[in-house]
């Protein structure tokens, strides 16, 4: 008994419980929190230790719909212990819902005032016991059923017995009636020579009729027994078979008691052999045990003899036949073998032949491949590396003739390699079987009588025989000297180019339309205010461009990326460096590269800082404007004085003075036009040129021009084509100025006496005015630049013709301000057609 003074701590108690083999759990709250569960309980639940601390409902959710939780709560509240046996519970064990049987007890542990503070749950898995018991119950039920069935069987048997008795009686009556019939049967039996046997199996008592005894060669008076007469009377060769037939007949399940057998007997007295055919039927008791065996035997000796003889002769015949057949067979198989051997031989020969051909072919093919390969190839054989095959390409690289190297050890054939690593490499490949690959290595090769430095790529590949033994080395050699030199040169050029670009303060750019990224040299990045490693996408690049230039640059890029532009990019614009806040005017020139489908791959080009040039130009313009302006006043007074002198000369009829003053006047007019031109340019540049639009008929303007030209121009034939009414909305004076400029250029740049044609037609909703001459024409390279300010063609034929290159520039600016187009078609030496278009006014 436990000493009441010894207090056991809760933990110790739990430890003790943990050791217990009985499944034990403690719940310490009303909602059945698992305070403790020992291993036995956990394994019974099919859970691990993580369930401790959870409520039983959380820990074993599968028991929610089973009665246990309710029972436990009831015990908690009532304090009454609940015990149950053989109770099924379904728990998830190893992932499967398993029903087991338990004896268990829920016991409330209460404090002094009778309040429950925990529940002790003990349980034992009694599934096996339960199942055993169930089996026992089941078995005893079965036994009971059997007993009942037996009792019923007994009753049936008694009833059956009674039936037998009455049947027996009936049978004896039938026997009497049938005796006569049986006698008749006996007589028939005798006539057919049939013997009858009747064996009382249980008492081993055999009865043979007279005929049966005859067939076994025993005297009619002899009392026969199964063993001494039947078994002994059987021919030794047939005994086993016959007794087997008897045994089979005794097996009701096998034969249903039927017996049918042919055997020989050896007469006990006369030793005569007889063939008999016995047929019988075994009668069984209820336990299927043989009781009686009755049957007949019939002499079949004559038939059997006859059949045997037949069979014998047949078999003899058969034997003879078989022998013959066998001989034939042998013969044909020998033949077959011979044929097969022949075929095999033929096959082998063909195969050999084919193999030879293939070998030859593959050798020739290898040779062919090697010979024709554009890359240097050779085959070295054996440890001496004898040169077996060497193609022309390799001979060229080696600087050797075929005769110099063929069938010679490589070392001897190419002494120039002495002291270089090649020989060792080949030895090494031959020895180790490991291929060697060399990229871009420098080697001194024979060149005429001397040596040359070559750069080559090479592969040394071991060659093996059919057994896998190394028997040679294949060398693949490529002379890349030129390519490497070219590459180095290209790199050098690139380097020089970069240096030049840097030195020339040029911005170089590369634009990839696919990625939309600009790459540029350092100068360009600096101008755009970018760090060294920063990329510039198109958007960013455009943003850095001055507002007034931005859309123009974007258009120029789009235009250059279109195949129609021929890929040309040429634009001037101002960059506002976001880093330094400085402005820079640049001239960008580039070219787009297109792929075969006409898609832009890249736009590459240069940027030239033209800020200074622009400033110079500005200064020049300012100066010209100022000078022109200053010249205008004295020129006007010169013109005035000249006119005065002219009128005085007229009065004095001073012809000489008149002529001189006329010439002076012409020069003054020229000068006025020139100065006006300069003034116009400067006005244009400073945005001071104004377009005074009005709707007028081009036909009339052309008519006026025609009148003026016919009056002034006598050196050329000026031909005006008739013009239909063509209304336009434009600055009449300035358009007239453009036509006059075209005509005066045509006069200026074509020989006297040639014809100038002027037309004005409507084409695609535009008035198209063109001036065609038969003059010097313009080279293609100049055409694009003709409308630039101050641009003049530089050629011998231009030598004496004066001008400043501002006329066409002004024309172009005027036409552009009218939303028209201007251009020229020209063939050098044949003439030019200058044209411009203006939108036609709706009538
Ligand atoms: P300028 O005639 O004063 O040089 P323009 O601007 O009128 O200036 O013409 C620019 C250049 O275009 C000329 O210098 C000349 O080389 C070329 N040009 C103009 N018209 C013709 C023409 N009809 N035939 C050949 N060349 C021409």
TrEMBL record:
Residues 626-842 form the Histidine kinase domain. It is an enzyme of class 2 (transferase). CDD domains: HisKA, PAS. Gene3D superfamilies: 1.10.287.130, 2.10.70.100, Histidine kinase-like ATPase, C-terminal domain, PAS domain. SMART domains: HATPase_c, HisKA, PAC, PAS. It comes from the Bacteria. One of its GO terms (molecular function) is phosphorelay sensor kinase activity. Residues 143-170, 303-351 form a coiled coil. Residues 259-312, 437-492, 569-622 form the PAC domain. Its EC number is 2.7.13.3. Residues 181-253, 493-564 form the PAS domain. Keywords: Coiled coil, Kinase, Membrane, Phosphoprotein, Transferase, Two-component regulatory system. It catalyses: ATP + protein L-histidine = ADP + protein N-phospho-L-histidine. It holds the Pfam family HisKA. Signal peptide: none annotated. This is histidine kinase. It comes from Mucilaginibacter galii.
């Amino acid at each position: 008994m436990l000493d009441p003074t010894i207090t056991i701590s809760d933990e110790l108690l739990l430890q003790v419980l943990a050791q217990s083999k009985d499944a034990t759990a403690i719940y310490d709250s009303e909602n059945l929190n698992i305070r403790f569960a020992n291993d036995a309980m956990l394994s019974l639940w099919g859970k691990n230790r993580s369930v401790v601390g959870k409520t039983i409902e959380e820990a074993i959710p599968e028991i929610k719909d089973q009665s246990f939780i309710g029972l436990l709560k009831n015990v908690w509240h009532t304090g009454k212990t609940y015990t149950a046996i053989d109770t099924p519970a379904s728990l998830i064990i190893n992932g499967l819902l398993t029903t087991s049987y338990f004896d268990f007890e829920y016991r409330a542990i209460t404090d002094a005032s009778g309040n429950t503070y925990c529940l002790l749950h003990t349980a034992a898995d009694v599934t096996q016991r339960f199942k055993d018991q169930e089996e026992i119950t089941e078995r005893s039920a079965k036994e009971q059923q059997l007993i009942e069935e037996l009792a019923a069987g007994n009753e049936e048997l008694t009833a059956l017995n009674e039936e037998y008795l009455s049947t027996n009686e009936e049978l004896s009556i039938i026997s009497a009636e049938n005796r006569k019939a049986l006698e008749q049967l006996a007589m028939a039996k005798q006539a057919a020579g049939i013997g009858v046997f009747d064996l009382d199996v249980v008492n081993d008592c055999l009865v043979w009729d007279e005929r049966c005894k005859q067939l076994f060669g025993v005297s009619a008076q002899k009392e026969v027994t199964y063993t001494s007469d039947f078994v002994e009377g059987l021919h030794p060769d047939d005994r086993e078979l016959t007794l087997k037939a008897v045994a089979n007949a005794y097996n009701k399940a096998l034969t249903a008691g039927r017996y049918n057998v042919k055997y020989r007997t050896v007469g006990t007295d006369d030793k005569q052999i007889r063939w008999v055919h016995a047929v019988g039927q075994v009668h069984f008791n209820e336990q299927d045990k043989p009781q009686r065996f009755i049957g007949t035997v019939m002499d079949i000796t004559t038939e059997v003899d006859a059949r045997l003889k037949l069979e014998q002769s047949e078999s003899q015949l058969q034997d003879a036949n078989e022998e013959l057949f066998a001989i034939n067979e042998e013969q044909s198989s020998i033949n077959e073998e011979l044929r097969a051997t022949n075929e095999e031989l033929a096959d082998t020969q063909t195969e050999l032949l084919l193999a030879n051909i293939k070998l030859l072919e593959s050798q020739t093919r290898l040779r062919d491949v090697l010979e024709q390969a554009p890359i240097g190839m050779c085959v070295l054989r054996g440890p001496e590396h004898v040169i077996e095959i060497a193609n022309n390409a390799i001979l060229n690289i080696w600087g050797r003739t075929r005769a110099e190297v063929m069938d010679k050890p490589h070392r001897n054939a190419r002494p120039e390699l002495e002291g270089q690593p090649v020989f060792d490499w080949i030895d090494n490949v031959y020895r180790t079987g490991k291929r060697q690959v060399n990229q871009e290595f420098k080697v001194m090769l024979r060149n005429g009588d001397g040596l040359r430095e070559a750069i080559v790529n090479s592969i040394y590949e071991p060659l093996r025989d059919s057994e896998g033994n190394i028997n040679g080395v294949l060398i693949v050699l490529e002379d890349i000297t030129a390519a490497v030199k070219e590459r180095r040169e290209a790199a050098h050029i690139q380097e020089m180019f970069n240096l030049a670009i840097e030195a020339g303060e040029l911005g170089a750019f590369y634009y990839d339309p696919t990625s939309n990224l600009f790459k540029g040299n350092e100068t360009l990045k600096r101008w755009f205010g970018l760090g060294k490693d920063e990329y510039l996408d198109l958007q960013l690049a455009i943003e850095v461009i001055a507002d007034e230039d931005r859309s123009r640059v974007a258009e120029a890029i789009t235009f250059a990326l279109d195949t129609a532009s021929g890929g040309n990019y040429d634009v001037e614009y101002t960059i506002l460096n976001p880093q330094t806040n400085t402005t820079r005017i640049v001239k960008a020139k580039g070219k787009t590269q297109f792929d075969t489908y006409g898609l832009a791959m890249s736009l590459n080009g240069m940027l030239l800082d033209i800020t200074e040039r622009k400033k110079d130009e500005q200064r020049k313009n300012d100066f010209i404007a100022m000078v022109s302006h200053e010249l205008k006043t004295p020129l006007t007074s010169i013109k005035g004085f000249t006119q005065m002198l002219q009128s005085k000369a007229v009065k004095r009829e001073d012809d000489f003075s008149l002529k001189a003053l006329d010439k002076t006047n012409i020069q003054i007019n020229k000068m006025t036009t020139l100065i006006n031109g300069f003034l116009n340019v400067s006005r244009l540049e400073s945005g001071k040129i104004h377009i005074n639009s009005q709707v007028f008929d081009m036909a009339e303007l052309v008519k006026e021009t025609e009148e003026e030209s016919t009056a002034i121009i006598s050196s050329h034939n000026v031909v005006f084509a008739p013009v239909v009414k063509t209304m336009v909305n434009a600055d009449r004076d300035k358009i007239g100025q453009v036509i006059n400029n075209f005509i005066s250029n045509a006069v200026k740049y074509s020989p006297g006496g040639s014809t100038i044609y002027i037309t004005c037609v409507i084409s695609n909703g535009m008035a198209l005015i063109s001036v065609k001459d038969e003059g010097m024409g313009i080279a293609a390279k100049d055409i694009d630049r003709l409308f630039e300010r101050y641009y003049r063609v530089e050629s011998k034929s231009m030598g004496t013709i004066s001008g400043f290159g501002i006329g066409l520039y002004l024309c172009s600016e005027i036409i552009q301000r009218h939303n028209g187009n201007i251009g020229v078609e020209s063939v050098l030496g044949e003439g030019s057609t200058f044209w411009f278009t203006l939108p036609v006014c709706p009538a």
